[in-house]
């Protein structure tokens, strides 16, 4: 996709005098796109990344590797399966803490609902 804009970019002074700037812009745009994809998806097939970023599998691997080593994103590249995973595995304590929190919220809702039902029944008994 960047190839569509390179001829137009080269007409600008900042790119015509400095050839490496177009390559640097392409890299920066690809890194930005990879960060956006990492925030938006948990798992993406490499074929989809190739289509989304209009690049090759080798460049995808290079961008993912660079961003992971710079700690800009978290990713795991499963080369045989052809999938990039952007979601960290949660530790058992994190999963249990979240489960306990969710159960507490659920019990709070059940208690509130029970209270409202009892209140409604009491008001109905008074009316009759």
Automatic annotation (TrEMBL):
Database matches in SUPFAM superfamilies: Winged helix' DNA-binding domain
GO cellular component assignments: cytoplasm; nucleus; proteasome regulatory particle, lid subcomplex
Segments crossing the lipid bilayer: none
Pfam families: PCI (PF01399), RPN5_C (PF18098)
Keywords noted in UniProt: Proteasome
Residue intervals of the PCI domain: 1-91
InterPro entries: PCI_dom, PSMD12/CSN4, RPN5_C, WH-like_DNA-bd_sf, WH_DNA-bd_sf
Family: Belongs to the proteasome subunit p55 family.
Name under which the protein is recorded: PCI domain-containing protein
Organism: Sphaeroforma arctica JP610
